[in-house]
Amino acid sequence: MVVEQTKAVAQTKSAEQTGLAVAQPLVGVVHLRPLPGAPRFDGDTGRLVAQAVSDAEALAEGGVDAVMIENFGDTPFFSTVVPRETIAWMTRVGMEIRARIALPLGVCVLRNDGRAALAIAHAIGASFIRVCILGSPRVTDQGLIEGDACNLLRDRARLGAEVRIWADVNIKDSYALAPSYSLDRDAADLVARSHADALIVTGAATGLSIQDSHLTLLHGKVGVPVLVGSGVTERSVGGLVGQCDGFIVGTALKDGSEPDARISAEKTRALRNARDAVLA
């Protein structure tokens, strides 16, 4: 009885810290088509908005607990500050999605413009943002990227924005600058020094599974929720329930492996059911 009560308290705290209303949330990702100004933008803003809304509706139909929008099609990414048109069109898309679905929203502005993500989130009433590099610097294909927690946290305070900051630890597609990198030390610093509200662990690249040892090191030991941010599938989600505090899923919910593949409500529902079967 005491164990169950303790577990319930922990789940309630986790739900509060993520900014979502449920424990073990399933967050579906809308990978936006190339936005105006991006090299691969095809000139069709109507299609851009319509596909984003359609994908968000498919995620909602499939039973996700929240939806996150991400400028996934804007390769090659700016390292930090994105152009004004990126912010404008992500806000436009976010408002269109907000008008169609009642789920909590999140925002990620790649590669690492947390301040833009916060501004968009504040404008569209989103609950959280994802920041790939909040603290220690990382070597990426965009060059060396440093965290900007000092300005991001001050922006949030100045705006009075009730937006949670989810920060990646050892983010995919990047490498630590320090040769003696410590995952648990980095995670502790993200919480204590950069004030992350939740942490995200990923595999080495988009769609790749995480290392189980990373969850063992972090889950229940850093004082904030730890979510899995890549490699979650219908087959793997059951084994991850209880080992983390939630899931961010994009690739596994698509009808195909291409970047522009559409979200499948059926695949989303199947993954949701696989998670629920273990939670029951």
TrEMBL record:
It holds the Pfam family BtpA. One of its GO terms (molecular function) is isomerase activity. InterPro entries: BtpA (IPR005137), RibuloseP-bd_barrel (IPR011060). Keywords: Isomerase. PANTHER family: SGC REGION PROTEIN SGCQ-RELATED, ZGC:162297. Belongs to the BtpA family. This is Phosphorybosylanthranilate isomerase. The lineage of its organism: Bacteria, Pseudomonadati, Pseudomonadota, Alphaproteobacteria, Hyphomicrobiales.
